[in-house]
């Protein structure tokens, strides 16, 4: 199948998504809920692109290519909405995400600067009882990556999405934390988390040594 | 929807066994709340992981809040809002000494909100256990512990011969089994031009063809009985007063697509719908109309009923499929479409109640007769319903193309007590709001779309001069934020921000609001986030001063 990304033709296999076509063409759209190890989810809407002949932008991660499709990663409405969405998501966190996180990087890429939204933010809630994994619920943006990697890759089913609407979040086990769940400490959830809501506590940190000190 | 979780459900329980959602609701009925032991027990019985069951228990209204021995649920739907401006909620809360979502310390009483009980013809409505009281004295009766079941309206037809407002007689199925092949029935429905009545107006025959063509050993017909659109009690009327018509429609759809199982998901806010359907199904089984030879030549078809547990978004078809398998009622992106992968990953035809109730007439009388019901307009007839502000509220069967003015003034008799109609919201909370100045708009898909409205579910909720439009915006956006399933980011955060913008009396920054509405419309995964801007856009267009725009 042949599609066009920003005017450049690219060959993609049957069943490829628009996002795969964009990447094959060497173009780029930012994503937040996407992880190539997992089935596309379509939650964050940051990967919106324009498609010729369609009146609305579409989520590139969940939309299959059709032969001859013309994809526009710079579609103004798509970029405008993606920026608005990232600004909304940043506004639900009580404090800005750490600079090294995927969320912070996407915000920089989309030029989302100072937040204009005030209002409710997530309540601080921490699970620090597990030896290797820490959960900070207030940093969760419900991208579902941790829940899905625990389901689709590890098969441990230790995590779940909880609540709905603005209260949507995640929990380990019956909300009793990682330690009292079926977690096998694989660390996949921390690896995929785009906000540091789940982080891996290294043995060095537990010993009170920072990575820099250890390397020195 | 997680493929692994769907597979676990299929592996551990057969169709008709209680779902995880139903088992958790049972725990709430028995003990007033879901506790960790219930989660473990339900996980063990359904084969689902404990964390997953915990996630389910935190999603649905019926499972999230503690319930007292006396469980009072006040309707906060749009018709009840139009009736009292929300005063009935405050009166109940004061009278019981409980905030919404609270249970008294001794566990004797609890108060929760519910949207909506479908007694919009005599708002406000309050539910106590399975009794729904409604009307101006309902709150007083509930507070004196003497609730009484409210009367149901009698549906009326404006057509020469009712199509939808009748008990089903199975004559359509009899004719089809004797005269038409499944392919011929699909063609007849295509010729009839049936459009889905749940809000999206999608051509029914397209779904039928796709489902029929999908290669599979088994297919399902699912009836969406989750009529969550506040102000609408049309599907409730059909499920409770014409259940045979619905079952006949399902049997016909099953014959056409080659399904042997039908499932109706009924919202728990309608306590009388499930018993009515199950009794009708039992009568049909006794007559051999459902069961081992329902579709002739030894082809079986039967129908089961599954309970919802309080979630507006479950009315969306992928969320509905998740709920009826007992999972969290969140939306999934399409493809795959239910026609390809629905119940248990098998091809599934999902239709709203009213859509299926259209099929028996087509089966008995043919496509041409169906098209003639609304000459020059959308084929078929439509059920509409009016809220309590009108002089003659109730459910009416009308031809498409009737003007909204005729509906409001002639059919429903104008507002009660000579009050003036300020505006009418059509089709549910995602429908636009028509100001009184545009009442001459024909009630049909295109003319309503041209003025930012939709047919939607067919409800007409009239507001009189007492209703402040800023209050209405707050009511609608509060509902929207509360019912967001939480999956897609624009809806999950955006509806809360929109709701916050109209709190208080401060001026609303119009440019900011419109930027937010655009993100919701273009960014949302489903019609909930995508549709909530429609009524707000109506208010911006027709009532900018009242909305407090700056």
Task: List its salient traits.
heterodimer; A: 216 residues; alpha+beta; Alpha-Beta Plaits; 5-stranded mixed beta sheet; 3-stranded antiparallel beta sheet; 7 helices; B: 550 residues; Rossmann fold; 6-stranded mixed beta sheet; 25 helices; 43% helix
Give a brief rundown of this model.
The complex is a heterodimer of chains A (216) and B (550). With 216 residues, chain A is of the alpha+beta class.
Mean pLDDT metric of chain B: 97
- Count all strands of chain A and give the number: 10
Radius of gyration of chain A, CA atoms, in whole angstroms: 19 Å
Count the helices of chain A. How many? 7
Quaternary class: heterodimer
Largest contact between chains? A-B, 57 and 48 residues
Q: What order do the strands of the largest sheet of chain A run in, or round the barrel if closed?
A: 2-1-5-3-4
Q: What's the arrangement of strands in the largest beta sheet of chain B? A: 6-12-11-15-13-14
Task: Give a verbal description of the structure.
The complex is a heterodimer of chains A (216) and B (550). With 216 residues, chain A is of the alpha+beta class. Chain A has 7 helices and 10 strands. Chain A has a 5-stranded mixed beta sheet with strand order 2-1-5-3-4, with helices on both faces. In chain A, a hairpin with a 6-residue loop joins strand 8 (159-162) and strand 9 (169-172). Chain A starts with a strand and ends with a helix. With 550 residues, chain B is an alpha/beta fold. Chain B has 5 domains: 3-58; 70-143, Glutaredoxin (3-Layer(aba) Sandwich); 156-371, NADH-ubiquinone oxidoreductase 51kDa subunit (Rossmann fold); 381-464, Roll (Ubiquitin-like (UB roll)); 469-547, NADH-ubiquinone oxidoreductase 51kDa subunit, iron-sulphur binding domain (de novo design (two linked rop proteins), Up-down Bundle), CATH 1.20.1440. Chain B contains 25 helices and 15 strands. Chain B has helices spanning 3-12, 20-31, 36-46, 50-57, 61-64, 78-84, 87-96, 138-143, 171-179, 182-192, 204-213, 234-241, 243-257, 273-286, 317-324, 353-365, 367-371, 404-411, 445-450, 469-483, 489-501, 510-523, 527-531, 533-542, 544-547, and strands spanning 70-75, 102-103, 109-114, 125-128, 131-134, 156-157, 220-225, 261-266, 302-307, 348-352, 381-386, 395-399, 421-426, 433-435, 459-464. In chain B, strand 11 and strand 12 (395-399) form a beta hairpin. In chain B, helix 21 runs antiparallel to helix 22 (510-523). Chains A and B meet through helix 2, helix 4 and strand 8 of A and helix 1, helix 3, helix 4, helix 20 and helix 21 of B.
């Amino acid at each position: 199948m042949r599609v066009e990304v920003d005017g450049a033709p690219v060959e993609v296999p049957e069943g490829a998504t628009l996002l795969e076509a964009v990447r094959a063409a060497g173009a780029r759209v930012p994503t937040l809920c996407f992880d190539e190890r997992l089935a596309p989810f379509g939650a964050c809407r940051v990967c919106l692109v324009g498609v010729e002949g369609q009146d609305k932008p579409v989520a590139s991660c969940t939309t299959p290519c059709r032969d001859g499709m013309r994809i526009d990663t710079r579609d103004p409405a798509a970029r405008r909405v993606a920026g608005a969405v990232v600004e909304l998501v940043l506004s639900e966190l009580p404090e800005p995400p750490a600079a090294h996180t995927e969320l912070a990087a996407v915000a920089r890429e989309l030029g989302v600067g100072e937040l204009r939204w005030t209002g409710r933010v997530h309540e601080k809630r921490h699970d620090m009882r597990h030896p290797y994994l820490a959960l900070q619920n207030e940093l969760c943006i419900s991208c579902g990556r941790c829940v899905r990697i625990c389901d689709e890759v590890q098969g441990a089913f230790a995590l779940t999405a909880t609540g709905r609407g603005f209260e949507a979040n995640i929990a380990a086990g019956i909300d009793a934390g990682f330690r009292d769940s079926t977690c096998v400490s694989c660390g996949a959830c921390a690896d995929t988390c785009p906000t540091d809501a789940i982080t891996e506590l290294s043995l060095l940190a537990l010993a009170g040594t920072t990575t820099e000190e250890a390397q020195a | 929807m997680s493929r692994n979780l769907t597979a676990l459900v299929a592996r551990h329980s057969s169709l008709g066994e209680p779902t995880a959602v139903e088992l958790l609701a049972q725990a709430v009925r028995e003990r007033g709340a879901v506790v960790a032991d219930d989660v473990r027990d339900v996980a063990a019985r359904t084969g689902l992981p404990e964390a997953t069951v915990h996630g389910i228990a935190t999603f649905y209204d019926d499972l999230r809040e503690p319930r007292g021995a006396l469980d009072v649920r006040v309707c906060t739907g749009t018709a009840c809002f139009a009736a009292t401006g929300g005063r009935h909620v405050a009166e109940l809360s004061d009278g019981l000494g409980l905030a919404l979502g609270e249970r008294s310390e001794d566990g004797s009483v609890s108060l929760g909100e519910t949207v909506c009980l479908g007694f919009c013809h005599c708002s406000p409505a309050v539910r106590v256990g399975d009794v729904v009281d409604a009307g101006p004295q309902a709150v007083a009766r509930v507070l004196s512990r003497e609730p009484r079941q409210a009367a149901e309206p009698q549906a009326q037809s404006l057509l020469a011969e009712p199509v939808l407002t009748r008990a089903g007689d199975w004559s359509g199925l009899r004719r089809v089994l004797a005269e038409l092949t499944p392919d011929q029935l699909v063609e007849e429905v295509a010729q009839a031009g049936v459009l889905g009545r749940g809000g999206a107006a999608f051509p029914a025959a397209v779904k039928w063809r796709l489902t029929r063509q999908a290669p599979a050993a088994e297919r399902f017909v699912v009836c969406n009985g989750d009529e969550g659109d506040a102000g609408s009690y049309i599907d409730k009327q059909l499920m409770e007063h014409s259940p045979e018509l619905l079952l006949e429609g399902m049997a016909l759809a099953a014959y056409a697509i080659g399904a042997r199982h039908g499932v109706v998901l009924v919202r728990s806010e309608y306590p009388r719908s499930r018993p009515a359907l199950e009794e009708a199904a039992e009568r049909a089984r006794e007559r051999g109309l459902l069961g081992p030879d329902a579709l002739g030549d030894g082809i079986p078809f039967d129908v089961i009923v599954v309970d919802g547990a309080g979630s507006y978004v479950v009315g969306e078809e992928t969320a509905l499929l998740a709920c009826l398998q007992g999972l969290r009622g969140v939306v999934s992106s399409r493809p795959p479409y239910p026609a390809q992968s629905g119940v248990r990953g098998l091809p599934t035809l999902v239709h709203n109640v009213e859509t299926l109730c259209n099929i028996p007439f087509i089966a008995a009388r043919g496509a041409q007769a169906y098209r003639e019901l609304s000459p020059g307009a959308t084929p078929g007839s439509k059920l509409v319903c009016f809220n309590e502000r009108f002089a003659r509220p109730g459910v009416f069967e009308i031809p498409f193309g009737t003007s909204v003015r005729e509906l409001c003034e002639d059919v429903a008799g104008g507002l009660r007590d000579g009050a003036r109609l300020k505006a009418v919201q059509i089709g549910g909370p995602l429908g636009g709001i028509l100001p009184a100045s545009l009442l001459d708009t024909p009630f049909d898909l295109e003319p309503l779309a041209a003025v930012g409205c939709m047919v939607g579910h067919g409800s007409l909720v009239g507001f009189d001069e007492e209703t402040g439009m800023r209050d209405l915006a707050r009511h609608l956006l509060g509902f929207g934020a509360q019912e967001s399933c939480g999956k897609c980011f624009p809806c999950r955060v955006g509806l809360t921000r929109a709701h916050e913008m109209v709190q208080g009396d401060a001026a609303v920054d119009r440019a900011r609001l419109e930027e937010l509405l655009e993100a919701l419309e273009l960014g949302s995964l489903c019609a909930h986030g995508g549709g909530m801007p429609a009524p707000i856009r109506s208010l911006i267009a027709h009532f900018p001063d009242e909305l407090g725009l700056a």
